[in-house]
Amino acid sequence: MARIKYYYDTETCKYERVKVSKWDITLNLLGFFAVSLIIAIIILFGRDAYFDSPKEASLKKENSELKLHVDLMNKEMQTISSVLSALEQRDDDIYRVIFEAEPIPSAVRSAGIGGTQRYKELLEKGLKQEELLLGTLQKLDKLKKRMFIQSKSYDEIVDMAKNKTDLLASMPAIQPVSNKELTRLASGFGMRIHPIHKIRKMHYGIDFTAPQGTPIYAAGNGKIIKVRNSFSGYGKQVEIDHGYGFVTKYAHMSAFNVKVGQQVKRGECIGYVGSTGTSTAPHVHYEIIKDGKKIDPAPYLFMDVTAEEYEKLLELAARENQSLG
């Protein structure tokens, strides 16, 4: 039953019944509906702002999983890129040096693969994760191009190797003493502390320590052009002409096993470790002379070692310490 309302009439001094018109009822109803609508809108926006619908929650979960997979792909591509960089460096600094070929310019290796127009079809779809996907696809395309260039480079090197069989056999490419544990490389090429004068001085070879009498091996095929005995400097020394501009020197030997004019093969014993001349301990001082210029032998110690062992030899040779003579 509807509540009846009264008001006090000052003229009649009586309570009179309030008469409600249809217009008043209509206005009240409209006001009620307006307030209800406003409250409903506020609740709806509040819910959308703080709570996800089942579909939105599903899409957010899907996007999160997608981003996780893309991040994992990017990490994998970074690993592949690091390995590829090592191969590129080895190609430019070792293989192409060995075959006297020009290194591939970095501008060619890292050249772009076109703008975003390559991905026009993807852009037209209006994906929300557009930047994430574009960045990943561009990295992937760049990796693919670098791998293609590197594969073509290896094809060129294979062709050069086929045409330079004699060069490969003659090139000084092994360590002059047995060094399976990689513990005998004592001092590398470059500025080193002189063992006698105790000052920094250019060291033109690599010192390999070994017990007195340890066999010394020819680093490549060639002809013995010097067998000399000196009481200072290099002491007892042997030089081999390998052809193709390569000459190797082995110094501070205790005894010889070859004579001038003799042809030797890679790995053949040419003498024995000693400490003759200006030397502070038994070792062999090993040099490579290319076209009359003494060069760092370390990059040429690539034969009969694994990739990891080769990197270790380069690291040991780069350490600045004291030479042995």
From TrEMBL:
Assigned keywords, A-Z: Hydrolase, Membrane, Transmembrane, Transmembrane helix
Molecular function, one GO term: hydrolase activity
Entries under InterPro entries matching the protein:
Cell_wall_metabolism_enzyme, Dup_hybrid_motif, M23ase_b-sheet_dom
Q: What is its EC number?
A: 3.4.24.-
- Bilayer-crossing regions: 25-45
M23ase beta-sheet core domain location is: 201-297
Q: Does the keyword Cytoplasm apply?
A: no
Q: Cite the CDD domains for this sequence.
A: M23_peptidase (cd12797)
The broad enzyme category this protein falls into is: hydrolase
Q: Which SUPFAM superfamilies would you find in this protein's record?
A: Duplicated hybrid motif
Q: What is this protein called?
A: M23 family metallopeptidase
Organism this protein belongs to: Agaribacillus aureus
